[in-house]
Amino acid sequence: MISGQHYIGGHWCGEPDAANTSFNPAQNTALPWCFAEAGEAELHSLTEQATAAFALYRYVTAAARADFLDSIAAELQQRQAEIVSAMVQETALAPARAESELGRTCNQLRLFATELRTPASDCRLPALPERQPLPRPALRLGKVPLGPVVVFAASNFPLAFSVAGGDTASALAAGCPVIVKAHNAHPATSELAAKAIAAAADKTAMPAGIFSLVHARQHAFSEALIRHPAVKAVAFTGSEQLGMHFQRLIWQRPKPIPFFAEMGSQNPLFVLPQYLAQHGESFASQLAQSVLNGCGQFCTRPGLVFVPKGAEALVAALKQHFSQAQTGAMLTVKIASHYRAGCQALQQTDGVSLLAEGQGEETACYTKPRLFATSANAFMQQGVLQQEVFGPATVLIECADLTQMQMLATTLQGQLTATLYATEAELVSAQGLLNELELHCGRLIYAQMPTGVEVCAAMQHGGPFPASTDSRYTAVGSQAVQRFLRPLCYQNFPSQNGDTAWTGK
Amino acid sequence: MISGQHYIGGHWCGEPDAANTSFNPAQNTALPWCFAEAGEAELHSLTEQATAAFALYRYVTAAARADFLDSIAAELQQRQAEIVSAMVQETALAPARAESELGRTCNQLRLFATELRTPASDCRLPALPERQPLPRPALRLGKVPLGPVVVFAASNFPLAFSVAGGDTASALAAGCPVIVKAHNAHPATSELAAKAIAAAADKTAMPAGIFSLVHARQHAFSEALIRHPAVKAVAFTGSEQLGMHFQRLIWQRPKPIPFFAEMGSQNPLFVLPQYLAQHGESFASQLAQSVLNGCGQFCTRPGLVFVPKGAEALVAALKQHFSQAQTGAMLTVKIASHYRAGCQALQQTDGVSLLAEGQGEETACYTKPRLFATSANAFMQQGVLQQEVFGPATVLIECADLTQMQMLATTLQGQLTATLYATEAELVSAQGLLNELELHCGRLIYAQMPTGVEVCAAMQHGGPFPASTDSRYTAVGSQAVQRFLRPLCYQNFPSQNGDTAWTGK
């Protein structure tokens, strides 16, 4: 049962508007669910509730926050059937994918819970009253939460990067109340995830405004939300265009606040000749799967593949994979039409050719996978080749040799990932290429596809601009919590060596 | 011997301009040293050299970087007499202060060297090839330097926050080449510190462009420098006005970069009645010393002192301290005239009264210490009371009780520090005040003056805006290095468990 309401201050509220329906991309039809539209009243109430909740939540112990996160995971799993059903209808993603994403979302919440139960100990330096020429005071470096965090959910991970996803989990772990702006492409899935969080907050006695969900199709609401003085940080996953629009609004605030936007990536992949000679067939099928899986709707999908000359067998194998692939329904009509426009721009670019495209008809959300090829020279000259085309397409760039690959690597924009497929012998000679790639990415991968992001303490999911707005932070993994914490030094307190009521995490 | 030249790419260059002399604030006269003025040619050469140096320096081992920093400290100490003499002439600060600041600067360099020799181990997760449903790849989270860093030196710490100061030391420790824009108020001191760095770079065989010093009185040069694409991060210490001007320029770059500005603070200090009854006299003399020392030219000088009503004895003692104090020469004519204008604005503010001022005449750089008083109501109503007046002045705010103190604390801007003087018994009842202060500062202090910043692993010298541009970073202490590093995840490399040539710190 979908109410279509906002969840604010512990209550469901707002009148669903019959015009704001959810959409089924696979069937190109409206779903029987409609949603409220937030305005000024909701903005006021949301921010007031989040501020009030922060005054309490900043003193909730790390252990209690961990219980809250674990409880959210349990509540999500209890609602698995309902959530998977809504997600499949709203996104055209496969049930198996929805199930595995739910599992990943729960594991992500539990990862932060585990981290909270084994917190890094504060750096403590005892007083040195006899030190010359000056005594040293007792000092302790703690970390405290920034305050209410606004999360803009991603379209392409309706669970793992949405209402109860990584941004929400890391902000709650940090001690920050969360306001989620539901993604318009999966509002019912969002409501169900919010119900899980609401139930967990009730069961673990969290303050009422600890979590809010709000539906708003108008950008004006989002713009007012991120400009609101009560908001102390914003997390965003989406396009560079919208991310930078929000970034500029945040820069106009009287008091700037941290904004972390993960804005996608082309994920360049380099493959060397010996590797190709030894593993060409398996490489081709891994690459095709990485590009085609889930209609290519991953921010880590490899969109640029630098291949050595003479890779005819690879090209032939990929052509076969792509031409046999069927059209698939993307998440929204807008995403599908952006994809088609991006492919058209590539096709019209001098020096770029379409090698293969998939079967079926492109209507509404349905799009064909496409394989493009170009030369190293065209890559250097055509800026359009450095723009992400979000969807099931990739571009092969033929390179004369390793030196040319390294030269092309110098021109790359900031990326979430960069990948090298090489034999161990080739790896030695490719050191210069790796050195160059290191400058352009947040994750450097050897001989594995970049899709598939491990949620763990060693992950970096971010990267130099425009992959993210700040390469020093990550959206995935336990370090994601650092976006929402700041250090606070306590000097000379008598309770210095014990816990104090005003201690943050 | 002062050449007046820039130091770029391992060479001293540029023609000193006879009009660009250094200035003696104590004597209000020009010093016999004149300096070159950088323009487009220097900008080009500086950035090219720093970029070339980065390509080499990013692979210089942590141990070699540590040797470089230690060597800078040794070279500074070898030049102590010459540096102290130049600094005293250029800044009117006392020789003892110059000597202790030199010692602190050397200790700061050695702190980073020590940290580099005991690096935090990377987070490494081994592969789990048998894990279900999906194997885990081997992952290692390293940290890599951002690239060339521009440092804008502070006026008030001509050594510790200038050419060889904390920003330079932390950027070099991170693996970033440094370009220092010399502060116009101490160019000769800057040249001597640069000579120490140059000698150390030679002795430890660092790349030629690892460090540059440039003189430029025109803001246009600084503006072009921070907009230059080769620059990957900027550190600044100075006024909010100039800091935010630079921040806005950086936001206009096609690719935004990290900018850390420490922009000063009022450093509110609260004292409770029992504490005052027991330690009033010593508190008064500590406070007077903290405000008056070095002409009050510290970003951590307490500028707002919230006192309980009935603090007549404190007021009388402070009046005596301030009225007996002599005028002193501030760092520059501009700083002195800003100070006098700030005092005048306070004096003309309704509800603010001047309780005492020092002896002597206010001419050129010389200014009188001043003690102001106001009421809690006036503090609430007059925005001017929340503007830092940089110099030897402070404002007493009389509060009815602890509740009113806590209410006033809610109105405070972001601060570097906040301090509470209370007996241990009062500390318990002041928990609410401490909770509030925690939201507004980077360092919370019990019963010690905020001036005096320990350089160590537990320090936080930053704070919520406008104390700094990003409360998640510090300008002082070993964590300052984090401003210039970003995480990089290495996935599935065969050398995963050993060191690799492309490993950053």
UniProtKB/TrEMBL annotation, chains A, B:
Keyword Ubl conjugation: no
Pfam families, A to Z: Aldedh
GO MF term set: oxidoreductase activity, acting on the aldehyde or oxo group of donors, NAD or NADP as acceptor
Chain ranges of the Aldehyde dehydrogenase domain: 21-426
Domain of life: Bacteria
Keywords: Oxidoreductase
Gene3D superfamilies assigned to the protein according to its UniProt record, in alphabetical order: Aldehyde Dehydrogenase, Chain A, domain 1, Aldehyde Dehydrogenase, Chain A, domain 2
SUPFAM superfamilies: ALDH-like
Name of the protein in question: Aldehyde dehydrogenase domain-containing protein
Species whose genome carries this gene: Arsukibacterium ikkense
